[in-house]
Amino acid sequence: MNTLKRWTPSFVLMAIIFAFSSTPSKEMPNFGLVDFLVKKGGHMLGYALLALANLRGLNGKRPWLAWMLTLTFAASDEFHQSFVTGRHAAIMDVLLFDNLGSLLGLLAARLFQRRNQKGDASAPPKN
């Protein structure tokens, strides 16, 4: 698979995250605790998917680099939010929610990879 095809999911996810973070706060509803949980859950899910997409871009190798790329984008996106009307940069989003989401995504990839490797080892030999 060529490089552009491998990295396209990362670019698409970064564009989606950027679009969400460009929304002024007055246009976003606030439903209290549910709102907080949905938004932070969205952070975690978005960055889990971005970490997986970055891992794909790296051919499934160097998960530490996929993690670093994901957190670098998360930090830059939080900085970008500081310029959006009614929004502010929250370093805690990066350090906690985005970081946790990216680590959970990469952990899921590793567990999936291990499960598939065990499945291959226990398969009967092909003649």
Protein model, in words:
The chain has one domain. Helices cover 75% and strands 0% of the residues. By secondary structure, the protein is an all-alpha fold. It has four helices and no strands. Helix 1 (3-21) runs parallel beside helix 3 (63-81), helix 2 packs across helix 3 and helix 3 runs antiparallel to helix 4.
Topology:
Blueprint: H1 3-21, H2 33-57, H3 63-81, H4 91-122
Feature tags:
mainly alpha, 127 residues
Oligomer: single chain
Quick check: average pLDDT? 89
Number of domains: 1
User: What is the H/E order?
Assistant: HHHH
**Percent of residues in beta strands?**
under 5%
Spatial gap, N to C terminus: 29 Å
Q: Total helix count?
A: 4
Global Rg: 17 Å
Q: Share of helix among residues?
A: over 70%
Globular, elongated, flat, extended or rod-shaped: what is the shape? Answer: globular
Class of secondary structure makeup? mainly alpha
Query: How many E strands?
Result: 0
Largest beta-sheet characterization: none
- The parts where pLDDT drops under 50 for at least 5 residues are none
